[in-house]
Amino acid sequence: MSKVSNRTKIATALVGALALAGSNLVVADPLSDVQKADTKIHQDAAASQKKVDNYFDQAQDMAFEYAQVADTRESVKSYNDYVAGLVADQEATMKLIQDDIDGVDKLRQGVVPLMFKMVDALEQFIALDLPFNLEVRQERVQRLRDILNTAEVTLAEKYRLILDAYNIEREYGTKLNAQTGQLQLEGKEILVDFLNFGRVALYAQSQDQKQAWMYNADTKAWDKLEATYLRNLNKAIKQARGQGAPDMFALPIPAAEAAQ
Predict the structure, then answer these.
(1) Of 245, 251, 246, 216, the residue nearest 231 (C-alpha)
(2) Would you state the pLDDT for residue 26?
């Protein structure tokens, strides 16, 4: 009896141990699953955080790039506005230049006839003036006529040359001028020294200084001067040529009515 009981006890203990061991195995499986799930959650959270960090970095990069693009856009806009201003200013300048060109064309149409009239007036003036240095003055007028009909000379240069000729004629009226030339008297040519006292009077003296004449604008002829004027006339000729010191001299001059 006692032997059976002991065996029974042993068997019961073995069964109990196995049952306990089985219950521990059953409890251990859900715990492992929880640990695995927690690990996976952490892994997923880490992966999600990494994605969030990547998205944040991308967003930061995009924000920086946008700021750069915005700055570039403002710079480009400012430059475009600047260029637009330059273009507008250039267009305005071009319009002014074109207006000037149109004005020059109109001016040219008026200046060309004016220049021909100025040369004609100069030629007429010389013909009516005292006949001093006549050949040189007439040649100057002819050169002006030739230049007016030459395409190689600019309009501005033509106008300048005409003004120069007028200026030379103006200076003739303010100075003593002496030059050597031929004087025709009674069908003969006499070598003389001419002296023009501005446009007031014109004289001629023979090379031997023994004869002298004064031009008569009314008769277009030469009136002989008295011998008393020979010395003064010779003095005046030397002064005109810079060969004598400035000094007073007395010479007859035409009457005021004749000089007008």
Answers:
(1) 251
(2) 46
